[in-house]
Write a structure and sequence with these properties.
Length: 237
């Protein structure tokens, strides 16, 4: 077997090697390649819009961030309202239970039980239980009470409003009646009860007189204060 010649060996070394296939470079790599040293690479428009669109997209089934605190506040207000109603209703019921237990444990007959009061009120309103003189007469008593209360208030308004207008407008009348009003006003209404019984007897007129005294002074004083608070130029207009 012969030895290869030196010329053949040089021909093999001189044969060019095949070129590698071209590599496809994406926009991001081109942007990184084009960036100068010390500068941040510039990304393409597609890379900037797609993450923003994904961040802004919210599924319809997922509540937004703004709605969640409002819903929590509404739920908190609803629970607070229910708790206030429960406390407002529960306390009177608790008092009724304590009342019933106290009557049952002491065995007293001076204070009726809640059940006895409810039965009496039903007979007083509708009748059919005791069938006495007071059965089913609640409307009559309500009408009598309304005539006494509103009759005394109407009488106090008919006297107190014109008198307050005159006292607040006329200085001489105010100087004349103001000491007497301040002297009689602190007297409680119950202190006038004996005089009302002497003057009007035991009928409804005594009750109307007491209601009149209870409403007269507030109406009179508020009318005087209102008139004196008005600017004097408005009266001259």
């Amino acid at each position: 077997m012969g030895v290869p010649s030196l010329t053949h060996h040089h021909q093999q070394l001189a044969t060019p090697l095949p070129n590698p296939p071209p590599t496809q470079v994406g926009p991001a790599r081109l942007a990184h390649a084009d960036a100068q040293p010390g500068q941040a690479p510039v990304s393409s428009g597609r890379e900037q819009t797609e993450p923003t669109a994904r961040a802004e997209y919210i599924s319809p089934a997922q509540p937004s961030i703004e709605q969640t605190p409002a819903a929590v506040r509404r739920r908190g207000r609803s629970l607070e309202r229910v708790g206030a109603i429960a406390l407002g209703v529960g306390f009177p019921l608790l008092l009724i239970v304590l009342w019933d237990r106290a009557v049952a444990l002491t065995g007293t007959r001076l204070v009726p039980s809640p059940r006895d009061v409810a039965v009496m009120m039903y007979d007083f309103s509708f009748g059919g239980i005791y069938d006495d003189a007071f059965s089913g007469t609640i409307l009559t008593h309500v009408w009598k009470s309304m005539t006494r209360v509103y009759g005394g208030f109407l009488l106090a308004a008919l006297i107190g409003i014109p008198l307050g207008l005159m006292i607040g407008r006329i200085r001489i009348l105010r100087q004349l009646l103001d000491p007497t009003i301040n002297l009689l006003r602190p007297i409680p209404v119950t202190a006038w009860l004996p005089l009302s019984m002497i003057f009007f007897g035991l009928g409804p007129n005594a009750a109307i007189f007491l209601v009149f005294l209870g409403a007269f002074y507030p109406i009179l004083l508020n009318t005087i204060f209102g008139v004196r608070s008005v600017d004097v130029r408005l009266f001259e207009a």
